[in-house]
């Protein structure tokens, strides 16, 4: 059997177990959306700005939330991202401290703690308990969203690295969909069961904690970081069955030799180093384009967006977005190792730009033409489709492809911080920007998407089917290639024409 093209039950178990952390991340992203009105009522009562026992005729709590309720609600949404920003810097440290497997096992304590805090929210002040639980869960997800792609990127065979890397995003959107379904009023999204809905955020961590001890450690970590060659060979065989490991070991040996030539790269050293500047700019820009595309504005506030678009049952439209989300992530899993990362990202960003413009047009003319609500809904659905084709899944695993073992943990930490920071900015300020810009709010995202498309076309290389060393060599070639000299080019053309004459 050919090395690098093998899939086994152990590899499938390891990837499934790892992406349970991504499932939990997606659940946390989506769970806060559906019960928004219910939580706002509980916040209002706890803050004393709403009556404890409102009468059916009292609709003010539905129509105009108190400013303090809006503030605490926005904080409940965005504090999750603050937690992610704080711990994203620790991804490399935690991953190298005890290994990828034990690292994921350790951080599950945070997930379970966050779930318990939110599950017991009614026993204390709900706004404070939910905010505290969401913050702790953010700490967990900031680490998990870096550890999961790192582990999968290191254990995946080259031929399947894109598809397996995309499973991180597939698990995220599946978690979002599960949270949307469970958030329906007749299930858990009601006055009695909302703490259970939020508390289930920590459930995947329990299952992952039971399965992680059954998964092999990353052979790359064992050999390159710890120098344990024999253990690395054993893990390779556990992942791929009995085969000749010499080719994989030779690749890791070459990567280790390259890593030994350079000192362990810290985050500060990575930022300052000109050797990695091009890769770092590409990695950060891809994460910025993912978050500032406006996708999380839809994930966090889709229910209110659909309501503004004239949808009578916005929660079901939101679930529809989740279904489309999941389906097209599966499409990306099938295409990413065929069409390539760069191609899918370009298609996704360009399509999203067109959809953002169509969405704005639909919202602007909604009061003039009633059928414009269908334009807005269609644009939202297509926006999500294009996002999941490329800009959604690819930034998460391409960072691990762009960097060698030495700078990889620092690069993943920086990219994660960039992602979480922009996630926080969108989650915290979108309601205020929407209030300021009204129906034109998605024009801002359209401009950002257009710029991101141009950048991707000009600067992002194709990494499909290439080893880590080949990708690194491509960037080195770019750095060494001198910029074209216009004067020299003119002289060359003149000489050429003279020769032809």
UniProtKB/TrEMBL annotation:
Recorded superkingdom: Eukaryota
Topology with respect to the bilayer: Multi-pass membrane protein
Membrane-crossing residue ranges in chain numbering: 70-91, 103-121, 127-152, 164-182, 194-215, 280-303, 315-336, 343-365, 371-389, 410-433, 439-458
Listed GO biological process terms? D-glucose import; dehydroascorbic acid transport
Keyword terms:
Membrane, Transmembrane, Transmembrane helix, Transport
Q: Which residues form the Major facilitator superfamily (MFS) profile domain?
A: 14-464
**GO CC terms of this entry:** brush border; plasma membrane
**What PROSITE patterns does the database record attribute to this sequence?**
MFS, SUGAR_TRANSPORT_1, SUGAR_TRANSPORT_2
Q: Which InterPro entries match?
A: GLUT, MFS_dom, MFS_sugar_transport-like, MFS_trans_sf, Sugar/inositol_transpt, Sugar_transporter_CS
Q: Which residues form a coiled coil?
A: none
Q: Give one GO term, molecular function aspect.
A: D-glucose transmembrane transporter activity
Question: What's the protein name?
Answer: Major facilitator superfamily (MFS) profile domain-containing protein
Write out the annotated subcellular location: Membrane
- Biased composition range(s): Basic and acidic residues: 482-501
Similarity section: Belongs to the major facilitator superfamily. Sugar transporter (TC 2.A.1.1) family.
Q: Where is this region: Disordered?
A: 474-501
Q: Note the Gene3D superfamilies from the entry.
A: MFS general substrate transporter like domains (1.20.1250.20)
CDD domains for the chain: MFS_GLUT_Class1
Instruction: Please tell me whether the keyword GTP-binding is annotated for this protein.
Output: no
> Carries keyword Isomerase?
no
């Amino acid at each position: 059997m050919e090395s690098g093209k093998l899939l086994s039950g152990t590899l499938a178990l390891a990837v499934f177990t790892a992406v349970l952390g991504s499932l939990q991340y997606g659940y946390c992203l989506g769970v806060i959306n559906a019960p928004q009105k219910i939580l706002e009522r509980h916040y209002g009562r706890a803050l004393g700005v709403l009556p404890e026992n409102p009468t059916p005729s009292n609709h003010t709590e539905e129509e105009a939330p108190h400013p303090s309720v809006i503030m605490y609600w926005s904080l409940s949404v965005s504090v999750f991202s603050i937690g992610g920003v704080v711990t994203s810097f620790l991804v490399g440290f935690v991953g190298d401290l005890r290994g990828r497997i034990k690292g994921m096992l350790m951080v599950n304590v945070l997930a379970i703690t966050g779930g318990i805090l939110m599950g017991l929210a009614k026993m204390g002040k709900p706004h404070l308990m939910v905010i505290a639980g969401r913050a702790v869960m953010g700490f967990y997800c900031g680490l998990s969203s870096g550890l999961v792609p790192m582990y999968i990127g290191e254990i995946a065979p080259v031929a399947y690295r894109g598809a397996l890397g995309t499973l991180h995003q597939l698990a995220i959107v599946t978690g979002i969909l599960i949270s949307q379904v469970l958030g329906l009023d007749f299930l858990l999204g009601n006055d009695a069961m909302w703490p259970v809905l939020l508390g289930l955020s920590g459930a995947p961590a329990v299952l992952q904690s039971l399965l992680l001890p059954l998964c092999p450690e990353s052979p790359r970590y064992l050999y390159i970081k710890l120098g344990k060659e024999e253990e690395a060979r054993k893990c390779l065989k556990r992942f791929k069955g009995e085969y000749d490991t010499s080719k994989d070991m030779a690749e890791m040996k070459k990567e280790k030799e390259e890593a030994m030539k350079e000192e362990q790269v810290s985050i500060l050293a990575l930022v300052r180093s000109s050797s990695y500047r091009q890769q770092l700019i590409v990695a950060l820009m891809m994460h910025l384009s993912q978050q500032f595309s406006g996708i999380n504005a839809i994930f966090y506030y889709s229910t209110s967006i659909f309501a503004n678009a004239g949808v009578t049952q916005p929660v079901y439209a939101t679930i529809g977005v989740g279904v489309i989300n999941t389906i097209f992530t599966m499409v990306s899993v099938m295409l990413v190792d065929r069409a390539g990362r760069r191609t899918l990202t370009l298609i996704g960003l360009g399509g999203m730009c067109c959809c953002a413009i169509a969405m704005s047009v639909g919202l602007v003319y909604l009061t003039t033409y009633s059928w414009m609500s269908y334009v807005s809904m269609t644009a939202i659905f297509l926006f999500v489709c294009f996002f999941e084709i490329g800009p959604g899944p690819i930034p998460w695993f391409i960072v691990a492809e762009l960097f060698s073992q030495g700078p990889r943990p620092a690069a993943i930490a920086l990219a994660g911080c960039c992602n979480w920071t922009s996630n926080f900015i969108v989650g915290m300020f979108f309601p205020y920007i929407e209030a300021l810009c009204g129906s034109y709010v998605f024009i801002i995202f359209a401009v950002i998407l257009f710029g991101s498309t141009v950048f991707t076309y000009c600067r992002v290389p194709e990494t499909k089917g290439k080893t880590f060393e080949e990708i690194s060599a491509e960037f080195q070639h770019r750095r060494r290639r001198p910029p074209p000299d216009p004067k020299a080019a003119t002289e060359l053309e003149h000489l050429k024409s003279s020769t032809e004459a």
